[in-house]
Amino acid sequence: MWVILGVFLLLCIGYFSYSQLSFSDGYRSGQLVKISRRGMLFKTHEGTLNLSPNGMMTAWEFSVKNGKVSSDLQGLEGKQVRVHYEQRYQVFFWQGDTEYIVDGVEAVQ
């Protein structure tokens, strides 16, 4: 019984570690359309960036884990921004709705 429990625990730890790895990271620029806090049980910060410079809506959805980055984004809503993101293999429901996790933001002049 202890062996089965130990194997199950190791598999859970391994899956959690695997899911926290990022396989892509980079920058995206565009107009910040919205940033909101949503969710039923676990509140997460979700945002939308319009990537199209010609006015047509090309939406890119992202999640924010850091409260400071989220508050910085709220102050830049409607403006041109450049965000740094990590793309994860798996995101748990308490971390956000998308696999793109934004961890930095700066205003574009």
Order of helices and strands: HEEEHEE
Number of strands: 5
Report the sheet with the most strands, covering strand number, pairing sense and barrel closure.
5 strands, mixed, barrel
- Cα(first) to Cα(last) distance is 62 Å
Whole-angstrom Rg? 17 Å
- Biggest sheet: strand arrangement: 1-2-3-5-4
What is the arithmetic mean of pLDDT?
86
Number of helices: 2
Q: What is the 3D shape?
A: elongated
Poorly predicted segments = none
Beta-strand percentage range: 35-45%
Given helix and strand content, the structural type is: alpha+beta
Protein architecture, described:
The structure is a single chain. The chain is an alpha+beta fold. It has two helices and five strands. The chain has a five-stranded mixed β-barrel with strand order 1-2-3-5-4. Strand 2 (44-50) and strand 3 (59-64) form a beta hairpin. The radius of gyration is 17 Å and the shape is elongated. The model has no long low-confidence stretch (mean pLDDT 86).
What is the fold's blueprint, element by element?
Blueprint: H1 2-19, E1 22-38, E2 44-50, E3 59-64, H2 67-75, E4 80-88, E5 100-107
Parallel strand pairs: 3-5
Antiparallel strand pairs: 1-2, 1-4, 2-3, 4-5
Defining traits:
single chain; 109 residues; alpha+beta; five-stranded mixed barrel; 2 helices; 43% strand
